[in-house]
Design goal:
By secondary structure, this protein is mainly α. The protein has one domain. It is about 65% helix and about 0% strand. The protein is built from 13 helices and two strands. It has a two-stranded antiparallel ribbon. A hairpin with a 2-residue loop joins strand 1 and strand 2. Helix 6 packs parallel to helix 13. The longest helix has about 35 residues. The radius of gyration is 20 Å and the shape is globular. The mean pLDDT is about 90. InterPro entries: NADH_UbQ_OxRdtase_su1/FPO, NADH_UbQ_OxRdtase_su1_CS. One of its GO terms (molecular function) is quinone binding. It is found in: Cell membrane; Membrane. It catalyses: a quinone + NADH + 5 H(+)(in) = a quinol + NAD(+) + 4 H(+)(out). One of its GO terms (cellular component) is plasma membrane.
Length: about 325
Amino acid sequence: MSAFIIETLIKILVLVLVFSFLGGFATYIERKILAFFQRRLGPSYVGPYGLFQVLADGIKLFSKEDIIPKDANKLIFTLAPIIAMMSAFVSMAPIPFFGNFTIFGYTVHPIISDINMGLLFFLAAGSVGIYAPLLGGLASGSKYSLIGSARAAIQLLSFEVVSTITILAPLMLIGSLSMVEINNYQSDGILSWLVFKQPLAFVLFLVASYAELNRTPFDLLEHEAEIVAGYATEYSGLKWGMFFLAEYAHLFAFCFVISIIFFGGYNPIWFIPGGIAIILKVCFFVFLAMWARATFPHVRPDQLMRMCWKIMMPLALLNILITSIVILL
């Protein structure tokens, strides 16, 4: 029992450290990719190819003055970015990042908790993150932050409903909410990947994920084209950084989940081992998210809600109906 507890604590520590680093490093990668698409250099002065820019940004965030507005609710204002971080990292608990492997005769399971409701837990724990922008905007004492938090509530709640309904059709085929079982269902090769059986569900879930992650062109929570920064207008220093570190950590988590549900997870591909295969898949989906940011223009709130409720929701329900008919036949 004590060995299990120690192993779990080590897994949690490794997960937090690795994804905190990846979240920070993703800011550098995204700036480089956006610069490539827009024919400019991106970070290039601090270190070779600008690699130390991540370290410089981290030092800046840690050393920058932490400003709390006079009219803000100090307790809730401080708790909001902590909730964002906790939601992102707790949601990773049921994700099997790799297959089991052995070190010095000890079998390591690269998953914190393989619960039979793993996918539901991931969606539920991730949805708690809505309280971060909502409470942050409400506690700031600023009308601009309040408007940003209202956008957050509308957008995140809407697309969480769509993503949850969308995923029902693939789950009807698998018969389990465990991500390990979802991965094992696709162990017979590429043709067993669910993306070929549920292409509509994949597209809908991918778009809904980008909207939940506040990714451009759906970044209405913190709109980069405006003078103010939505719910984060009054935040500075480390608290500001925690919001966006959580966003990037959640991006990696969603890319792992998409790879596991629709693209065979950590099952090997021909001569490519499973661990390397899932890393390549995740890297592709992270790049795809950054590609979308560099390519598509922003959408208006009314366009976003129309797409959610009048296009994506009916398509998700239609997909469930068609899948149920196919299963019955």
